[in-house]
Amino acid sequence: MYARVLCSPLLSLRIVRRSLLRPPTRVHLHQRRLMSGVPTTTGVTFLTQEQAKKIDDDLMGPMGFSVDQLMELAGLSVATAVQKEFPPCKALVICGPGNNGGDGLVAARHLTHFGFTVELCYPKQPDKPLYRNLLQQCAEGLDIPVTKELPDVSKKEAYGVIVDAIFGFSFSGEVRAPFDTVLAALRESPIPVVAVDIPSGWDVEKGDVHGKGVRPTVLVSLTAPKQGASSFSGAHYVGGRFVAPKFAEKCNITLPPYPGADQVVKL
Question: How large is the angle between the packed helices 67-85 and 129-139, nearest 10 degrees?
C-alpha cells in the first residue's frame, strides 16, 4: 500500500501557486507540445535552390552516390509517405521529364508492391537508359498502365490519390505544354495530391507566388525541405534517408531524426 500524505488546504494552495509561477523546463515544453499536437521536430533546415543543387552535386560527387541510387531511395520515401497517409487504393502517378519524374517512376513501382493499383501518366518520356529502364520495370515488369495523356481527374471517385512527380527543385521559368494544362487540371481536381519534393509550379524559394501551382494535401520533401515549402500547411514529410551526419554537418543543415527503420519522418 502507498503511504497517504496529508497536508492542509493552505499548504496545498501554496504548492500550486509555486508550480504555476515556476518557469517551464525543456521537458515541460516538450510535454506541452506533445499534448497540444504541435510538432516537436524543430530547427529543420529549409534549403534555397542553390543549396539544394550544391548538396545534390556533392552527393553524386565526393559522397559517391549515383543518380539512380538516389532516385531509388527518393522514390521509396515517396511511396512510404503515400502508404502512411492513404490505404491501398487506385493511384495516379504523373511524371515529368526529369529526375523528379524518375522519382515518380520508382514510387509507382513500390506503391504497386504496397498493394496500390497504379496508373502512370508520362507525357514526355526521355530517351535515356535510366528512364527507359525505370519505365520498363513498371510497364513490363508490373503491367502498370502508361499513358501520355492526362486521364480525367475531375471526379473524386476516379482515384484515391494522385502523385505529383512533374517538376523538382531545379525547375525554373514558364510551365509549357503539355504540363500547363496538367497543372491546371490538378489545381481543380477534388482528388488529394501528394507532391514530390516541391509542388509543381511553385517557386522553390517563394512558394506558389503566381497561384498556378499544384495544391497538394501532402508534401514529401527530399533530402531537406525547400524554402518555398515553409508556408505549406498540409501533411509534410521529409524523406531520402541517405545524408550522413558528417555530410549534414559539413553542409550546415539540420535534419529531423528518423524513427526506427522508417524512410520518412513527418514534421
Answer: 40
HSE at residue 266, side-chain half, CA atoms within 13 A, is: 13
pLDDT, tens only, 173-213: 788 889 999 999 999 999 999 999 999 999 999 999 888 89
Q: At what angle do helices 99-113 and 67-85 cross, to 10 degrees?
A: 50
Does the pTM exceed 0.70?
yes
Q: For the chain, how big is the Rg over CA atoms in Å?
A: 22
Task: Compute the distance between CA of residue 209 and CA of residue 74 in angstroms, rounded to an integer.
Answer: 26
Instruction: Tell me how far apart the alpha carbons of residues 248 and 236 are, in angstroms, rounded to a whole number.
Output: 20
Where do the DSSP E strands lie in the chain? 90-95, 117-121, 146-147, 161-165, 193-196, 218-222, 235-239, 264-266
Question: Which of 223, 226, 224 has its CA nearest to residue 200?
Answer: 226
Provide the 8-state DSSP code for 197.
S
The full length of the chain comes to: 267
Maximum pairwise Cα distance, the chain: 82
Domain ranges of the chain: 49-266
84-103 pLDDT, tens digit per residue, is 999 999 999 999 999 999 99
For residue 167, give the C-alpha cell: 517538376
* Contact status, residue 95 vs residue 120, Cβ threshold 8 Å: yes
Which CATH code is given to the segment(s) 49-266?
3.40.50.10260
Which three cell numbers, joined as nine digits, stand for 223? 533530402
